[in-house]
């Protein structure tokens, strides 16, 4: 395939999926500005691997894996803390206006966002992949590079922590399939 065709195919994919990638990035990091940076880093890495990614049946899964790995690598390196301090002077930036079509209940969204931010890194990634991206235990394990047992235990712990953090009248009962 010619480079022009490959670039056009990549551009078409990213144009169609950038909203979804941005939302996943936001759920991982909890900040829209940082989500944009995270998504841009992941898209850049996806572009360098596009020759490989486009051969997969599930390009979304490949892109999601790159996004999660980029997020986890930034967390381990301390880069995220440094950029937040540098960019915002130690505070947090206000989130841009949410897309009205994408928000059903703003209050519930803010409550869940706050609770997600209080989870450990691996628990947050597990919850986002399992319940927002609707992946199975096995798919989540593959995306995180860990065992299915780890995903199950992280899911149970994360949901227990969320139950403690959230008002039970606000959220329907959360169950984990084992």
Automatic annotation (TrEMBL):
The keyword Metal-binding does not apply. The keyword Kinase does not apply. Residues 112-162 form the RNA polymerase sigma factor 70 region 4 type domain. Residues 15-78 form the RNA polymerase sigma-70 region domain. Keywords: DNA-binding, Sigma factor, Transcription, Transcription regulation. Coiled coil: none annotated. Gene3D superfamilies: 1.10.1740.10, Winged helix-like DNA-binding domain superfamily/Winged helix DNA-binding domain. InterPro entries: RNA_pol_sigma-70-like, RNA_pol_sigma-70_dom, RNA_pol_sigma-E_actinobac, RNA_pol_sigma70_r2, RNA_pol_sigma70_r4_t2, RNA_pol_sigma_r2, RNA_pol_sigma_r3/r4-like, WH-like_DNA-bd_sf. Belongs to the sigma-70 factor family. ECF subfamily. PANTHER family: ECF RNA POLYMERASE SIGMA FACTOR SIGM (PTHR43133:SF50), RNA POLYMERASE ECF-TYPE SIGMA FACTO (PTHR43133). NCBIfam families: SigE-fam_strep (TIGR02983), sigma70-ECF (TIGR02937). This is SigE family RNA polymerase sigma factor. It comes from Catenulispora pinistramenti.
């Amino acid at each position: 395939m010619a480079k022009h065709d490959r670039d056009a195919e990549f551009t078409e994919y990213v144009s169609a999926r950038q909203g979804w990638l941005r939302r996943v990035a936001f759920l991982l990091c909890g900040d829209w500005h940082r989500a944009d940076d995270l998504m841009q880093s992941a898209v850049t890495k996806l572009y360098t691997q596009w020759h490989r990614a486009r051969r997969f049946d599930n390009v979304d899964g490949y892109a999601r894996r790159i996004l999660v790995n980029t997020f986890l690598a930034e967390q381990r390196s301390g880069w995220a803390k440094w950029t937040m301090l540098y960019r915002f002077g130690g505070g947090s930036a206000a989130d841009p206006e949410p897309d009205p079509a994408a928000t059903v209940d703003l209050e519930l969204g803010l409550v869940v966002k706050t609770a997600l931010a209080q989870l450990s890194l691996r628990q947050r990634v597990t919850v986002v992949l399992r319940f927002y991206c609707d992946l199975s235990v096995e798919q989540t394990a593959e995306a995180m590079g860990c065992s299915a047992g780890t995903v199950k235990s992280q899911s149970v712990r994360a949901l227990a922590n969320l139950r403690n953090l959230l008002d039970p009248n606000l959220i329907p009962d959360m169950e984990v399939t084992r």
